[in-house]
What we know:
The structure is a single chain. By secondary structure, the chain is mainly alpha-helical. It has a domain at 32-86. The chain is built from 3 helices and 2 strands; from the N terminus they run H-H-E-E-H. The chain has helices at 3-31, 34-72, 94-103; strands at 76-77, 82-83. The chain has a two-stranded antiparallel ribbon. The longest helix has 39 residues, at 34-72. It starts with a helix and ends in a 20-residue tail after the last helix.
Amino acid sequence: MNVTDKLNKLSDMQAAMDFIRLHYQELRDLILTPEIRAALAEIDAEERTASEAASAGIATLTDEIKAEVVASGATVKGSFLQAVWSKGRVSWDTKSLDGYAAAHPEIAQFRKEGAPSVSIRAA
């Protein structure tokens, strides 16, 4: 089987998973009365409100921690989490350096190229 065939098979398998999810959601919907649906809607709304508040607090505290760790320049460990400080990445203008390397081939020995990678996306 070639890669195109495998991609098509993967797409079919993903569609089958969607069908399974829909099928079981339909079965759930058959047993839910309007009263239960209304109660679940209220619970979902309360959950959203609580989750949004908690997420906002988490985001604020995360930003504070990151700012303090960057300022200190050192990793900090808690009981369950750690804020790992990392040195800033160095980047180069590859297009310009490739042009420079054409005129100065001696720098080509310092060039490293990583392995290719693949991500699967919708067509």
